[in-house]
């Protein structure tokens, strides 16, 4: 199997039930053979881990192990490893879960574990075996060190820690009598110790007769040598000892110390300088921020303050100095007038001055102080400091006439410039305020900060009345927590209508509030809602229609109205009254628009009104018997002009529009056979159950006369409908007179 992974292995067998003499491979009873059920198991195929070991020794025979063992199935190279979710970080442990170390000494003795230092001549063998996550162990890996000579002895080392002055011009302070010296000593050899130490204190002496005339003279001769017997074995040993002497107040002393190991080998001398008295101390009190929470300097100047003290009695502080460092502790620089300067200031403790009233000059000043706190009178301009959003640190030191103190603690600070805010919405003035149609409008503003990466933590928005003497809404300090240069807020309560209002906003950058923005003006005016309706409905041609203005204004403002009525033929009429009453004579669709307006906003609604036509649909028909006769005779009975006999009854009818009707009339106005006028009229009545069908009988006995009846030929029956709105519709229906009823055979005179 040449690949790592899980393999599925399945095994099954075949029995052989044949009697003796017929066993496989005899095939006589082959049909009776049967296979077993399969048996399957998963098998994990993986490679054993590989152990890799190197060892080395330093000049002091300390042994360092470099174990690079790995599991080849889980780790290939640095940063390339298995990411399977097993809970094991294969990149960190290279797939190795356990190790066994042992070493073999030059005499052949095997020892489990590691050895830290080789001490004998001969060959050392170092071994390691490693285990992977499946419990497989690697072969042993071996490394060797050959020590062909006994370990040599090295000199010990020493370092003075007190006094700490590095040269003659910068001595550290000391007690006047019996100063306590301290130092650190170490011997890196195996089983080593610091056996003894030697102290030499010297002072600078002038001797006219010596050459050179100035030379260092030891305070004691011989030097102080004392036993120590402190075990080192590569470990640093702190040591100290008093030195019995009295220091001259104006003398600088050189202190030297060296140490001796157990074999008598001395270290080199380490030397420092001291003088009587102690340097003062300074503790910065402002700015007092930390690196993670620096003090925000929001003004234009950086003015530090500090506390100062001195272990010496009646100290007079003579001068001070402060400096500004970047976040990495490097001296900060600034440019001015083409020069490049340190960000620092120095000064004296000038106080108690009198001022000449004429010249303004100061006199009678004191330039020292015994006060234990001070505020610098020489501020540094903030504008000269970088504005990159990174914290800075300030330190101070003070001078007592002999010693400068160490630099004080660091007070961390940031130069913070307050943000600015200006309203974007609303933007109106008192004469032209911004109009809002909502009782809870959305206010928007711009916010900016000259400091980088500002997070605007809070805002506060205030709304006042027009006179600016009544607070209408104060949002309070409202969280926004954004780096965006724009902000917005929806007012959380209904604002009053009918009057101008003012608004202003300010923002907070986490350190300082901006000034309030200039006030802008706005007015709450909700738009009116235009609406109308008309009556009667439906509208018929000729109706006088009343169009009622149903518009409303949520603020109760008085509304103006402008009506536009566009007729079907394109004619346009306008009205400015609240309501409209007009006569609509022509059928068709009318476009009616209404625009209503308060002092600021308007609303328009458009509706289409259909004016229905008034119609007349008339007909002349037969009585039932005459209809049978005419149809039998083959006369025209279906479409005008229908054929009639003069003297039969005309059944006249009209169908109106479904509109109120005043009167329906049918009549014939003709000339009889004798040449005399022949006029007959009938008022038609609505049939029960059908309000639009009007019917009647048009007849006169003269129609049956041979001399006075209707002559043969075309005659006209006239119809007229008068609607209640005054509109009259007329219609003429032609008929054909084909003879007189008295000439028709077998027909009753009047049917």
From TrEMBL:
Full protein name: PKD domain-containing protein
SUPFAM superfamilies cross-referenced by the UniProt entry: PKD domain
Higher taxonomy: Bacteria, Bacillati, Bacillota, Bacilli, Bacillales
Domain of life: Bacteria
A Pfam entry, by short name: PKD_4
UniProt domain PKD: residue ranges: 525-599
Organism: Paenibacillus marchantiophytorum
